[in-house]
Amino acid sequence: MSPGFRFHPTDEELITCYLMNKINDATFTGRAIADVDLNKCEPWELPVLAISLLTVKRTPNETSPMLLDPEVQAVEECR
């Protein structure tokens, strides 16, 4: 499982796997954590942005929700 795709990534994972890469590479785009300019959004628009970035999918045989990331087409269990 890629770092950051767990429900609660550790502080170390956030810093070493996401923030350091973001600082060192200007072209870095994180799939797990989206960048949103809060100065360009109204507060009521934020839930719409979150839904467009992440889709929750449930199948009849599952008891827990599954997360579908449309960018990488990966399905990971919620933990």
UniProtKB/TrEMBL annotation:
Keyword Nucleus: yes
Keywords: DNA-binding, Nucleus, Transcription, Transcription regulation
GO BP annotations, alphabetical order: regulation of DNA-templated transcription
Pfam name, any one: NAM
PROSITE patterns (UniProt xref): NAC
Gene Ontology molecular function, alphabetical: DNA binding
Gene3D superfamilies hit by this protein: NAC domain (2.170.150.80)
Domain NAC: 1-79
InterPro entries: NAC-dom (IPR003441), NAC_dom_sf (IPR036093)
Protein name, entry field: NAC domain-containing protein
Organism, scientific name: Malus domestica (Apple)
